[in-house]
Structures are given as structure tokens and as C-alpha cells.
Amino acid sequence: MPTRGSKKTRAAGKKTRRWSQQVTTTSDALDLEGGVFSLNDPRAIARSLKRSAERSRRRKAEPFRSAMSMLNFYINRAGRKLSSARRVRLEKAKDELRRLYHRKTAR
Fold this sequence. Notes:
By secondary structure, the protein is mainly alpha-helical. Helix content is about 65%, strand content about 0%.
């Protein structure tokens, strides 16, 4: 008799996690530095994303859009598992990225 935590369900969940990890590591958008989203300083996160976006030769969009896209992707994939402190830090990194590219803030 199958139970709720059957092998089929667990295998499907693992495939989903691998998909988002694969996008982060092999995306055409950028070649990210390791642990960039774990940094404590929003400015350091933004500078790292900017550096990665400007160095990348595989990206399809302009550097700002590629960097912001990867940051949004990370925030969206983390979903509810992202602590409020980390979410605030990553939102500040978005503002800092806009500042580095001389864009207007969203607020």
C-alpha cells in the first residue's frame, strides 16, 4: 500500500531542486561567483552580480537586466524558505544594483 512519502513523490521533488540549481550554475545569463547570495552585505552582492554580468560573454540581455534577473530568480525560487532577514538583505541588494547602474529605484 503506497504511503504519502512514496519514492515517486520524493524523486519528483529532487528533480525540481536539481533544475533550479542547474539554472543557477549553468545559466546563459551569468557565471556567478560561489556563495554570492549568502553574503551579508547587500552592496557586496550587487557588486558581485554586476561584475559577473559585465564579464559574461554568454548573456543575452544587457548587464543590468541579467544581474537583476538572476537576483529575482534566486529570491523567487527560495520562496517561503527565505528568512525575512535574508529577503530584506536581497531586496537591498536590488536597490544597490539599481544605484550601481544609475537606474531609478522602484519605490
